[in-house]
């Protein structure tokens, strides 16, 4: 990735530590999964709203999109999050029921299940931040494909479709978001 998401990684780690201290072993896995989905639902709405706007430059776009994300999360998702979870509403490629066996195992102390949930949280934080940065490029005048190339360094065919949140996340996944996350874990362990 041609972007430094170390601060996103550190923030994710700090939040996981805070939640681990705050919640019981039984509650913690559920809270992490709920947060993954909370961010996904927020980003899904942000995608549609942000692409209707244009900004004079990347920095202005990024700051406004981050503010819009916070407003969407707080005012649109928080009030309905539990009902979205209960109805098992799919967001992107996931839904709450995809995690129920992990949550059950993790709440009983299965360390591998806890690690899998936490890893999924980290990876999706990377995806969501990449989406916000991409939206900032696009809404400040960069083409959709050029924005992907700026973020990943990959050369892509001009006709490649980037028409949905799901498509873009899959592109980032194929172009190394998970490998990038591994490099952040590696950096952390070498410090």
What can you see in these coordinates?
This protein has 191 residues and is an all-alpha fold. It has one domain (6-190). Helices cover 71% and strands 0% of the residues. The chain has helices spanning 6-22, 28-50, 58-77, 81-86, 100-107, 111-139, 144-152, 165-174, 177-190. It is globular, with a radius of gyration of 17 Å. The mean pLDDT is 90.
Q: In total, how many beta strands?
A: 0
Poorly predicted ranges: none
What structural category characterises the helix and strand content?
Answer: mainly alpha
Number of contiguous helices? 9
Q: Describe the biggest sheet?
A: none
- The helix-strand sequence is HHHHHHHHH
Using only C-alpha atoms, the radius of gyration works out to 17 Å
Identify the overall geometry. Answer: globular
Short description:
71% of the residues lie in helices and 0% in strands. The protein has 191 residues and is mainly alpha-helical.
Task: Outline the fold blueprint.
Layout: H1 6-22, H2 28-50, H3 58-77, H4 81-86, H5 100-107, H6 111-139, H7 144-152, H8 165-174, H9 177-190
Helix pairs in contact: 1-6, 2-3, 2-5, 2-6, 3-6, 5-6, 6-7, 6-8
Describe this protein with a few key phrases.
single chain, 9 helices, mainly alpha, 191 residues
């Amino acid at each position: 990735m041609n972007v430094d998401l170390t601060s996103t990684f550190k923030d994710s780690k700090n939040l996981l530590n805070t939640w681990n201290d705050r919640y019981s072993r039984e509650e913690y896995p559920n809270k992490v999964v709920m947060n993954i989905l909370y961010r996904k639902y927020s980003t899904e709405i942000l995608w549609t709203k942000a692409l209707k706007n244009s900004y004079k430059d990347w920095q202005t776009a990024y700051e406004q999109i981050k503010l819009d994300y916070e407003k969407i999360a707080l005012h649109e998702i928080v009030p309905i999050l539990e009902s979205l979870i209960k109805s098992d509403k799919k967001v992107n490629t996931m839904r709450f029921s995809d995690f129920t066996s992990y949550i059950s195992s993790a709440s009983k102390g299965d360390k591998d299940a806890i690690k899998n949930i936490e890893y999924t949280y980290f990876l999706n934080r990377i995806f969501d931040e990449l989406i916000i940065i991409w939206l900032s490029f696009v809404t400040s005048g960069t083409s959709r494909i050029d924005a992907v190339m700026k973020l990943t360094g990959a050369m892509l065919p001009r006709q490649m479709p980037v028409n949905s949140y799901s498509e873009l996340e899959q592109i980032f996944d194929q172009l190394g978001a998970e490998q990038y996350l591994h490099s952040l874990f590696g950096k952390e362990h070498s410090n």
